[in-house]
Amino acid sequence: MAYSNKVIDHYNNHRNVGSLDKNAPEVGTGVVGAPECGDVMKLQLRVNNGVIEDAKFKTFGCGSAIASSSLATEMLKGKTLNEATEIKNTDIVNELNLPPVKIHCSVLAEDAIKAAIADYKKKNGLV
Amino acid sequence: MKRAGTTEVMQQRGCWNCGAPVESLYLCNRCATLQRFPEKIDYFTLFGIEPQLNIDLARLEAAFYELSRKFHPDFYQKKSSEEQAISLENSAILNKSYRTLKDPIQRVEYLIRFVEGGSAVASEAPADLFDEIFELQELLEGVKRGPGDAGEAGRLLGELKSAEGRFLKIQEEGNRSLERLSIEWDRLQKGRTEKGLTEEQRRSLSEMKQILSRRAYLERILNDIQTGIGKLEKGN
Amino acid sequence: MPRVVGIDLGTTNSLVAYMERGTPRVIPDAEGIAILPSVVSFGWEGRPEGVVVGEEAKKHLITYPDRTVFSIKRFMGKGMEDVGDDRTFVPYALTGGKQEVVRISVVGKLYTPPEISAFILRELKQRAEAFFKEPVRQAVITVPAYFNDSQRQATKDAGKIAGLEVLRIVNEPTAASLAYGLQKKKEGTIVVYDLGGGTFDVSILKIKNGIFEVLSTNGDTHLGGDDVDRQLTLLMVREIATQSGMDLSSSPEALQEIRLVSEKVKCQLSFEEKAEVALSFPDKKINYRRTIARTEFDALIDDFVEKTLGPCRQALTDAHLKPEQVDEVILVGGSTRIPLVRKRVADLFKKIPHSELNPDEVVALGAAVQADILAGGITNMLLLDVTPLSLGIETMGGGVSRLIPRNTTIPSSAKEMFTTFVDGQKSVSIHVVQGERELVKDCRSLAKFNLTEIDPMPAGIPRIEVTFMIDANGILNVNAKELRSGKAQSIEVKPTYGLTDGEVEKMISESIEHAREDLNERMFIEARNEAESVLRHAERALSQGAALVDGSEKGEIEKSIAGLKEAMNGNDHHRVREALDRLDQSTKHLAETLMNQTLKEALQEKKLSDL
What we know:
Shape of chain B: elongated
Structural class of chain B: mainly alpha
Radius of gyration of chain B: 24 Å
Strand content of chain A: 15-25%
Strand content of chain B: under 5%
Distance between the termini of chain A: 38 Å
Order of helices and strands of chain A: HEEEHHEH
Number of strands of chain A: 4
Largest sheet of chain B: none
Number of domains of chain B: 2
Largest sheet of chain A: 3 strands, antiparallel
Helix content of chain B: 55-70%
Radius of gyration of chain A: 14 Å
Number of strands of chain B: 0
Shape of chain A: globular
Largest interface: A-C, 33 and 34 residues
CATH architecture of the largest domain in chain B: Up-down Bundle
Oligomer: heterotrimer
Structural class of chain A: alpha+beta
Number of helices of chain A: 4
């Protein structure tokens, strides 16, 4: 599927909504908030041998945050922890008429990934 | 502190119409045409009041009315389109300033931005609130799907009502603290002319920011809870 | 100072007013009547686009329901999707595709609601011109406070099509407050409860030192006296069906007749305890008689009245006021004559509402006051109005990011920074919506535009600044630019349910052509009427004074008469005027001679009687 179609698909059908066991040692949890609009987002990763096996998120309210999280969690799967901290996609997307994103929502997912990885590392004595 | 005196707000500017140097906030002394507000205008200077948190609302209103008579597009119907555009822009700025300073919470947010130049909310998240917010949001998901039976609906309603009470109490405490801090801030600021903040002022600001950063989350969840309660009560 | 008139373009009736030495007055027609029914009937004067407006058109409601348009205001600025129930309630045909402005199909032609409203506005414009004996080109037009951006824009378009420069769109309840404030010279907090034919508004204002500051406004653009008529109509249709087994709901003529009877019953029950209904349709063998008591009527409209109270409560909350803090309540709009309405309003605000101002005229009078302010007449009064609905744009995920909340004083501007969702995204679609809900699908779509040619950057890096500006008319302008590249972005605006500038221009030029045709027609008719009376006099004079003129003079007069008769059979008013002049010249001597003779006789008679 073309990248742009994938994006639109995430926009319409959110994936990876849910929770993982917060207390399991292989799960890292990040909870962050956007004080501008009062949104709170939780993002969880399950790590196996340094590779992210599964990712789930939960956020209420802001649609931008939901769409961003859906896309972010999908891209996280199969990546190593190091790769995950620098998720970037350089494909150029032409004529994709997407609505804009509030700036504080665009950073929410990124912050949540960082917080979840930090939590995992802390739990497993990697820092 | 960054109390912008009129001199600091008024950067050098020339009249758009005749080129003469403009010395007032919005009027050319030579050709009497309306000027755009200086770019760095702050709301306190605009209304000619001291930058404090407890302000005389009657005086603010009187100043607002007086300035409205100066800028409102009604009075520029026959002027040049440039002056009409300025009247529209200045009116919009005036209306926004009035709305901001009239509201005690927005006034605190504005003062923090004015003094510090940054965001009015603390950057660290109030993590203690998040777990409770998540639990409640999950409960509300249940309300949205529709409770299975009357018993479940009753249980949900009970939980939501007790949560509402709890959050309202936190909100109320926050408001009282803001009031106390506002008085404290004005006392600390009184008579100060030098730039830079004292240690006490910094602490006062940081406390205000902490309260403000919780406000958005509290408002959001309270709003959601009240919608949920409304829905359950209607369903009965 | 050019004339600026104030116009109340109502659902049921419209009026035009002006300011005369500090006092607003309505402008009557030639018969002295100020109220113009907002009804337009098509297909007259032997051509499909031949139009009659007002009382004359109202007569055709029953006889020609499919080509007589009423309550057009309900469709202003709307798409087929928003029309809903109204479609079945009006006998004229509505068409229009998805995401398109509604069109009314009459006598084989399609008209948009602004074009139909323009016929009403043009009639008022002509009335004012006849009154002042000079052209009128500028106007202030009122709209319900709760009208959204599309509806306001549509009203402005209607003005343009009618050849008027609309200096300001003013909210009806605030206009009423201006008229009230000017007359009563009172200060304090007032509530204007405005229940018209098709719309309901409530506004709360603070009046102080000549400043009229609106604190909050609320309403329902789809609630009014029409709904009361509809309740009564439905009741009668139902009862007739039970009694006779005949369903009249599929007969436009019958429905229209019942609707008009309903309107009468409603008015009667505002002053009397009961009303008699007698409807007969001999061709259907229906003879329906019935007495409706006030109590029964009150029960029937209870829900309707209740529906107006929710917005009142919300307006109080938004203004941070309790009912006790309101000094006065003013009633505006014909539907406030209903006793149950008055009672409920009094109960809610805990005070007897004021109704001494003529509820039909007060809005037009207020529009005239605002017109005078804009013309530079009154300088000590200033109206600070608010935007009734929150404005926002759609953000990723179908949510709404609110930029200007409702009840913000206008003019108002807001800026917010946005960014892209995916890496390399080159365009962003800005969808402007109006409404109080969190999701785009629950709000009203106003316009869409695309911000294109953004330099490809990773997601979250572009800084797109969106600026809203709501002007003093409550009409929105949107700008967007990407700040990092600094270059101006090409923006293409597509109003969701409005007319594009091009469409409006086309309608204006068409209407000017029509107006020229209409004008010629009117001038010809006037000249012909005058010619008829002159002819009658000339022919009588010639027979009376045959002995007083010589043969050549008589021949000249006869030739002039024949020439005039011929000109009257044509369609050129210039030729009629020329022939009239010629007849006037040729009968001059005869007229003088006759006059002298009559005078002489009269004097002689007098002398005789004196003796």
